Structure formats: C-alpha cells, structure tokens
Amino acid sequence: MHRADMVQVLLNNVPKSYPIHFDKKLTTYTEVVDVDGCIDHYVLHFADGTIAEADVLIGADGIKSSVRMSMYDIAHRQNCSPSVQREHCPKCSAATPRWTGIITYRALIPTQSLRKIDPNHQAFRYTLCVGLFHIGRRNTVLNCLVVPAGRRF
C-alpha cells in the first residue's frame, strides 16, 4: 500500500474528535502500564519538547523509524541484561540496523512506459520477479530495486 493511501485511510477513519498532529518528529515513546502490568497507553516524546498520550501507536515512520527503535529499546530493557548494550546483545543485535556496505537504488516506473520500451520485459510475465514487482492501483507502477553487480543479500 502506498504511504499516502494509508494516511488517507487513517484520516478517513479516525473520529473527528481525536486530535491529529502533523509536522512532529517522534524521538521516543514510553509505555504506561496499569496495575495488572498491561499497557494502558503510550506517552509520545517529540523533538520539539512536547509530549502527547495515545491509546494506539502505529509505527509507519519509515526506514529510520523512531517507533521501531523505541520498541526494540523497551524490549531490550525488559528482557535482557542491563550491562549489555542493545547493539551487542545476542538477542537484540539482529534488530539493530547497521551499515552493511550494500547500496541499492530504487525507482518507480509507470508500467506503460516500460511496455513502450520493452513489451516483453520479464516484469510482465511474473507477478513477482527478483528486484522488480508491481505496486499501485491495478499494478500500474513497477517498484525496481537495483543492486550493483556481484553484490548479494
């Protein structure tokens, strides 16, 4: 689903009485638990120093997600040794983003443009092929992931 479409779904379905704030940068969040130890709500901390409370937090903030990093930090504090940093923790290190030396290039190509150039391109023969797949309404856009020759994931 395209990010703008998801935002529109949320905007169309969140009750008008609920405040929605844009142009905020989340730095972290904390979980507030009830007497039974269940999460009651979240306190959101923003870069501008403001805070907000929420019953639901949707982590759709991209590759450098503050929501995801906060979630992993909370899980590490709750389940792992306090003497080990999350990046070096045997349980948590796989969830810590780190530079691998691999660079990828991404592009969105209208299917009609590719069809004009190469009507027999492999993208039209397969629903999903390596590094190239259909997205958008009615498969109208190709999402291309290009990896330099000789690199492997």
Describe the structure.
- The chain has 153 residues and is an alpha+beta fold.
- It has 3 helices and 7 strands; from the N terminus they run H-E-E-E-H-E-H-E-E-E.
Q: Using the alpha-carbon principal axes, give the shape.
A: flat
Beta strands, count: 7
| SSE string, helices as H and strands as E | HEEEHEHEEE
Indicate the proportion of strand residues.
15-25%
Mean pLDDT: 77
- Output the number of helix runs: 3
Structural class: alpha+beta
The biggest sheet, with number of strands, parallel, antiparallel or mixed sense and barrel status, is:
4 strands, antiparallel
| CA-CA gap between termini | 24 Å
Poorly predicted runs of 5 or more residues: 127-134, 146-153
Could you estimate the helical fraction of the residues in percent?
A: 10-25%
CA-based gyration radius? 21 Å
Q: How are strands sequenced across the largest beta sheet?
A: 4-7-6-5
Q: Please, what is the oligomeric state?
A: single chain
